[in-house]
Amino acid sequence: MYQNKKTAIILGATGLTGGILLQLLLEDDRYDRIKLFSRNRVNIVSDKIEEHIEDVLNLEGFNPKFKADEVFCCIGTTNSKTPDKELYHKIDYGIPVSAAQICSKQGIEKLLVISALGADPNSSIFYNRVKGEMEEAVLKIGISKTYILQPSLISGPREERRPGEWLAKQLFKVLNVFMVGPLRKYRSIHPKEIAICMLKLANGEEASGRITSDEIKIIANHD
């Protein structure tokens, strides 16, 4: 048994990867408190879970309750789900950056954020540019252990319909075999691999920084 048990915060526990991460944390004896900050409940009953239902676009409102050993930010949207670019920016840039700012104020030393492969602040592609700007802003805040995960296309079932993403997933089932060497990082990745990697990073000694999709797979599958 672990004597000094930890508290974790998850942003995005109702999403695909965040939901898997929540299950892993519930099963992990190193944690006795999991704080969820969201607009919707997860509908899971556990003594470990502490839910705070408010508008995550205004994380500052959670500030007094935003205390933990580690923060896992699994927030993200898509162009099809959020066509309004201003709202998109508030979600994919605003939430992770606000989380990092609060971590700094609260003395939280570990922050793990899901970004995307191809994130680039100078990209002509809006999605990639926002992710790149977010990464730079989060890292600039200077949390001592900041991990930015950059997964490729995330496989696995989603509740909402995303026809374009579904087609891409079918294509990647074939293309993954041919993506070797430098192309390996572009292979699609299962959300459980991302969640396992986040948990291992939070409890390991790996150097902080950006973790590409192929590195996520290696960490997740290494015993």
From TrEMBL:
SUPFAM superfamilies in the record: NAD(P)-binding Rossmann-fold domains (SSF51735)
Keywords attached to this entry: Membrane, Transmembrane, Transmembrane helix
InterPro entries: Epimerase_deHydtase (IPR001509), NAD(P)-bd_dom_sf (IPR036291)
TM region positions: 7-26
NAD-dependent epimerase/dehydratase domain segment(s): 9-116
Cellular localisation: Membrane
Primary location class: membrane
Protein name: NAD-dependent epimerase/dehydratase family protein
Organism whose genome encodes this protein: Maribacter flavus
